[in-house]
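task queued by scheduler; priority normal; single chain, no ligands, no partner chains; default sampling; output format set to structure tokens
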Amino acid sequence: MNTLSRRALLAQAEEQLQKAGTQQPRAEAEFLLSAVLGLTRTRMLAFADEPVTHPEQEKFWSFIEQKKNGVPVAYITGETDFCSLTLHSDSRALAPRPETEELAQYCANLFERGAAPDILDLCTGSGCIALALAARFPRGRVVAADISPDALHLAAENARLTKLQEHVQFLQSDLFENVSGTFDLIVSNPPYIPTGDLAALSPEVHKEPRLALDGGADGLDIIRRIAQVAADYLNPRGTLALEIGEGEAAAVCALFDGHRWEGGIKKDFAGIERFVFARLK
């Protein structure tokens, strides 16, 4: 194996990923090489002519082969960054998306710094939203619920990794089934993809747990169940915040009685109506 520079290695990997149909071949090659080298992308690219050792090359090409087979980058590296936290990521839960990070930031902005809100994160998955909000509001109470024991184990690992285990209670629950008490905020990134759309999703998404993706015939099965009873678990003027699928905003808003709820839709950075916020009047 010849000794290659970072630049040359990235060029070869980009070509392979492009042929494999990867959507962002250059960016994903850079992420993977950065992970192998233990550097930020910025630092790795700033010294792009530095040589890459043979063991590092071998590890990098093993990563590229996984990527060519449709494995999400976060699963390959085993970690992802979310709201300044570094979290473990694997097939027990969805790999956190940038839009979910936006949801967490919108939710954090609902409260003043130093506040102590009571927060429930439904369908917590990797625990990313719950942990981000626990880090922002260490005096608050955060309950993170999920039906999947595997996802909850991953979330608990992430709580220990971020040293937030004393600030989040993890609960196995089919939505509100085992939840008690009331909250200032209920937030959820639930399954919202219509069943009929799943087959057309990218290979990366097919590596993720179907339980966290399949929202039923119209994508709203879980969202509908949350909307039906959320008011019973909210404090006065409490807020329900949901991540939703593209094109679902009007149907989701229609689930809320205008005499009881107020709120609206927020777009993500791509301009898609991605979030619904509903507040009790």
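post-processing summary
- The two ends are 67 Å apart (CA to CA).
- The chain has two domains: 4-69, 80-280.
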